[in-house]
# Entry
Amino acid sequence: MTTTEPQLLIVGAGPAGLAAAVAAAHHGAQVLVVDEQARPGGQIWRRPDPGAGGSDPLAGPAYAAGRALLARAAAHPRITFAHDTTAWGVFGTQTTPDGFAAPPGTPVPEGPRVAVHGPAGVEVLLPRALLLTAGAYDLPVPVPGWTLPGFFTVGGIQALLKGHRTLAGRRIVLAGAHPLLLIAAAQLVRAGADVAEVAFAQGLPHPAELTRALAALPGNRAKVTEGLAALRTLRQAGVPIRTHTLLLRADGEEHVTAAVLVRVDRDWRPVPGTERTVACDTVGTGYGFVPSTELARQAGCAATWNGPAGGWVLVHDHAMRTTLPHIWAAGELTGIAGAEHAVAAGKRAALDICRSLGILDAAAHDQELPAVERELAATTRMARLLEHTCAPDRAALHALADDDTLLCRCEEVTYGQIRCTLRENPGLGTADAVKLLTRAGMGPCQGRMCGPALVELLHQETHIPRETLGPFTARPPIKPLPVSALAEAHDAGTHIPAPPVDTP
Amino acid sequence: MSDHPAQVSITLDGRPHSVPAGRSLAAALIATEHPVTRHDRAGRPRAPYCGMGVCFDCAVTVDGTPLVRACQEPVRAGMRVDTGRAGGPDPRDRVGRSDLRDRVGGSDLRDDTGREDV
# Structure
């Protein structure tokens, strides 16, 4: 195990992380970027193994900014990438009641200690500044059949295509509420898939919404152009795009064999008698995203509930500072707002970080600030528009699961079991309490899949506000880790707690 | 897809399989129409869901290491992949039950889920 002291450590090599890395390195910072994937780019700028041949999924004009940023980051002498590396704990930021703090009297180092696990084992990093840009994942929406092989999130289908040149299936139904469905459907059609239908829960925009959309246009032309190009591709391929339509369930025994869709009213409530079955081998749902706030919350950064922005989002100020010293956050962690906004937020964070590291003087900072602020403002307008028109109706989606539907995929806990537990324990008032009694959230995904659905179930059953119910407490390691790695970190004297010892 | 990738040979649940190279193990399994990465306790087949390392439904045992996410693992020639179907180790066995059993001399360890005595 080794210890490294980069000036700036960035967790997540997506748009926010890359933009921040390039900006900070430009001003002279030594930057280390850790990322779980094999290559930088995050989810949106995902590319296959360059040795695998074939065309570049980022070839089109919509990805020009991404290509440029990836190239600049790869070429910069002050940026180092640690790929296949998971940041699993932030220590030394606060005293926690669960034994994860430094022993009393231990001098707390300047800045957080960040434990990572990668190809070389465990390493503890001591950056002077930590920027969290962990991104987001697709909102999991449990419906009957959602654990069948062939049932994916739309992000998963896109990752297979962009990162691995693999079609998730032959005949695909996409359903949800987010415009990513259109982009993904067009990419699938161009790659040769048969997209049977794209179903949106909401209706077409009203005239007032269109006016609002026009107001959000300046500075967001690339995004709109990409959407229109996707629509053209789907029209030419004859792919039906239906509005006011929800995926009720997926049918099949060993694999998805059909999607059951239903017409819904303006409140996403199914219209009786309008169910139809579409034969397919693959289903993808895209109802929006969940910010990956686990590492930040484990560190002790404050989070707040903002349903339309994805659920729990990090509290931050105008310069992307979290509530903890030395820790900044940018991109989807502060609310789902898309890649363009993440790039702007990454630049904004980098300016403040370089200023606080003392490598950027006030005059240079103030000279760069207005352009970054304009970019942030323009992309925020587009993000608010999407939030307004595409936010998931959590109550309506909750109603799609029946008592036999698995809520927790890992521990195999059903909606019915949770309801039963609530009846037997009427005082339960947090997601954590329900987790302790039912095991929902205790599996390897650490509650990332069932957390949002569990909070909604508890909210609907108890009427306790969502912000009071959760989220699940985030504890280190925030991703599963071999016990030997924990022992390695502890033995190195980094005040990381020892793994539990089994006494014979 | 239009390109025809090179193939590599892997062992899947004890049987040799030829799968496309240059992609993740999950993608290779899906491309060869063997998407099932595990069966849950109720016997239901499971397969990749999130595709980006979050859900762990694609976790398999690779060369004896449990809980390896197939969507994050590049496919490699000669890799031994166990989904738990053919009596191999259960990829989701969080305490490495089979290893423990070897170490404690085959004593009867209780199921780590503890479900039956709840």
Observations:
- Chain A touches chain B through 48 residues (CB under 8 Å).
- Residues 95-101 of chain A have pLDDT under 50 and may be disordered.
- The longest strand of chain A covers residues 194-200.
